[in-house]
Design brief:
CATH architecture of the largest domain: 2-Layer Sandwich
Shape: globular
Mean pLDDT: 96
Number of domains: 2
Radius of gyration: 19 Å
Structural class: alpha/beta
Low-confidence stretches: none
Helix content: 25-40%
CATH superfamily of the largest domain: Dihydrodipicolinate Reductase, domain 2
CATH topology of the largest domain: Dihydrodipicolinate Reductase, domain 2
Distance between the termini: 12 Å
Largest sheet: 6 strands, parallel
Number of helices: 10
Order of helices and strands: EHEHEHEHEHEHEHHEEHEEEEEH
CATH class of the largest domain: Alpha Beta
Number of strands: 14
Length: 311
């Protein structure tokens, strides 16, 4: 089987964890380069120890590397602002595919078990992985949407403060905006809202996500079944993804509707879904489930894309 070479821009927590996953657990991807801007970064040092070609000269250093011609996929694990300039450079090289792990959202959103099959891979060269919170929660909104029209979806993502590196912290505003759009465009909700919490608890707690949807009245067992099936799909590439407790339902009667900004008053079935994501511990400890779900989703997207290109 042909292997596809990848470059990772951004040797921080996300980029380093992704590198480890590609090297240890992918049958179709292989590391071609790790790219940073700080020659003293731990991620670049680790890549060098693992035999991966590196550069500390950023995107220009990457395209000047002898390995550049062999690179098929470029993962960007920097920041939303940096990705805009990185994408402009990569776009000058037809055939290179970008997978964006920042909230820049230049390309279409991708949640692997929800909408990968709907992507126009013939014309797309840059896809966006939304956010860690989006990867964890949008599948649940979509699971409800498969059964009933969703008026509103709200998610609260709580991650350990220790798992949030400089890039994540720089992207907080973009996180809420991009995740909210993802809830609507991929999850199917008419209106979405996202909140992120950096939990400073010691010892650090694993990622927790709460998803609230307000949908049309529908069969509760059908919604519960759809949610459980979606959890199983996500677990195929993120084994630590799980329901933290039973799904809860509440009828919102027409006589006592809720007001949703931009939509007005709505009523129906409120569904509450509680998740926890335990990390695989490849780079940071198990509390960093937010790291694990993002890198696992990006790896799964590249592998599916590579399989498509092979066909």
């Amino acid at each position: 089987m042909r292997k596809f070479k990848v470059a990772i821009i951004g040797p921080g927590n996300i980029g380093t964890d992704l590198m480890i996953k590609v090297m240890r657990y992918s049958d179709i991807l292989e590391m071609g380069a790790m790219v940073g801007i700080d020659p003293a970064s731990d991620g670049l040092a680790r890549a060098q120890r693992m035999g991966v070609p590196t550069t500390h000269e950023g995107i220009q250093g990457l395209i000047n590397m002898p390995q550049w011609g062999e690179i098929d996929f470029v993962f960007d694990a920097t920041s939303a602002k940096a990705h805009i300039s990185n994408a402009a450079v990569i776009r000058q090289f037809p055939g290179k595919k970008m997978i964006d792990l920042t909230p820049a959202a230049i390309g279409p959103f991708v949640i692997p078990p929800v909408n990968f099959e709907n992507l126009d891979l013939e014309s797309v060269d840059n896809v966006n992985m939304v956010t860690c919170g989006g990867q964890a929660t949008i599948p649940m909104v979509a699971a409800v949407y498969r059964v009933a029209k969703v008026h509103y979806g709200e998610i609260v993502a709580s991650i350990a403060s220790k798992s949030a590196g400089p890039g994540t912290r720089a992207n907080i505003d973009e996180f809420t905006e991009t995740t909210s759009h993802g809830i609507e465009k991929v999850g199917g909700a008419e209106r979405g809202k996202a909140i992120i919490v950096l939990n400073p608890a010691e010892p650090p707690l694993v990622m927790r996500d709460t998803v609230f949807t307000l949908s049309e009245f529908a069969d509760r067992d059908a919604i519960r079944k759809s949610i459980n099936e979606m959890v199983t799909e996500v677990q195929k590439y993120v084994p630590g993804y799980q329901l933290h407790q039973e799904v809860q339902f509440e009828d919102i009667p027409e006589s006592n509707p809720v007001f949703i900004e931009g939509l007005g008053h709505r009523w129906g079935l409120k569904t509450s879904i509680f998740l926890r994501v335990v990390g695989a511990g490849h780079y940071l400890p198990e509390y960093a489930g937010n790291l694990d779900i993002m890198t696992s989703a990006a790896k799964a997207t590249a592998e599916r894309w590579a399989q498509y290109l092979m066909k």
